[in-house]
Predict the structure.
Amino acid sequence: MKPRMLHLNRLDVPPAVRQVLRTLQTGGHEAWLVGGCVRDFLLGRTPKDYDIATDALPERIESLFAKTLSIGKAFGIITVLPEDGEPVDVATYREDAAYTDGRHPQTVRFTNAREDARRRDFTVNALLWNPDMGEWMDHVGGRADLEARVIRAIGNPLHRFREDKLRMLRAIRFAAVLGFSIAPETFCAIQRLAPDIRQISVERIREELFRMLTEAPLAGNALQLLQTSGLLREILPEVAAMAGVEQPPEFHPEGDVFTHTRMMLDALPPSPSLRLALAVLLHDVGKPPTASRVILPDGRHRWRFENHARVGGTMARSLLERLKTPAALTDEVVGMIDNHMRLADAPRMRPAKLRRLLGAPTFEDELELHRLDCQASHGQLDVHHFLKTVREERREEPILPTPLVRGRDLIRMGYRPGPAFAGVLKEVYDRQLDGQTDPAALLAAVPDLFATPPPSS
């Protein structure tokens, strides 16, 4: 389906952004909205930020506004700080010199609107629009590519990607988030230069990956594009290794591990939590190294993946740490991966274990991970329905109530804090969760849980 192309002059641009445009124009300069905000307006999407292109030089921009930031001044970019509104980047038309680090130009030369458009990354990001006049400029065929739903590098795609290697990942992200295809010559250039993505910092790679996972309406398409382009094996070789790993067809009629993961990503809810998206991506990353083929008595064979959840959790931790993911998020994702096979045992769990499962801070995402896992394989949702029912039944009470026995109680009984304390307290609390709510009875059980009696006074 083609995007709904809008009349740009009818759209609601924030007043602060309009004021920046008008101040530049009143000062005798050209001023246009440019880039992603124009693209999003044409597609009926709400822009996240606004960029302005102008023929005013950086010093002139600074003189026209009371508050500015000059962090990007070397590249002709001044950030204007309106009194009432978000910061707006105002950039002088420029041409870029050589990109010696594969990310940024050494120097820039100020130029005109046409040349400024021609040095940008993709045609759909190079449109200019004046909202007051209702005028727009298209020097690179961006409007036609928006109509055709195509991501196309401006000029020679090999040259564009050699300038800035991150553009290869950005092409995948734009295609996945917008539901576009990638022009054949642009995609071929990505395949040819894919190994060069390793020259980009892991922080920038991580940002692009995480945005794909949480912003794309079908994140599995992003994964497939990464795989086909060759970028996946360069940045996430553990995930790329899932392709071709067979699974038992009676449990996984959908196909190999990669196909299963792709289907789960496509079924993510809109704007999923990053924690859930990462857990889906990595939940079966331990299957390739644990795959073994067992011969059955009737001569048939079956694939097994012993301890793949535990192995996958270890691999996921290494991968996420390599991407410099925040430690708290890493711990949560690894915990979900370690635990994802245990949810199938929920109907048979003792009450204490079940309540600990329901009371975990990650439970809602774990439940969704389980649902997606089942739907993308055997399709059986009995456990999911069971857990939802139990959760609803307990919604009016604390899943994990205040412990009736604490460490201070053990100290009063004469026990000294030490390694055994945590295990004893856990067992006493589990008995409470199992339904024993008499503090005296719980305390009476403590001596049997310690290997040695408390020291005499």
In short: The chain has four domains: 8-148, 150-235, 248-400, 407-449. The chain has a mean pLDDT of 90. The longest helix spans residues 308-322. The CA atoms of residues 18 and 131 lie 8 Å apart.
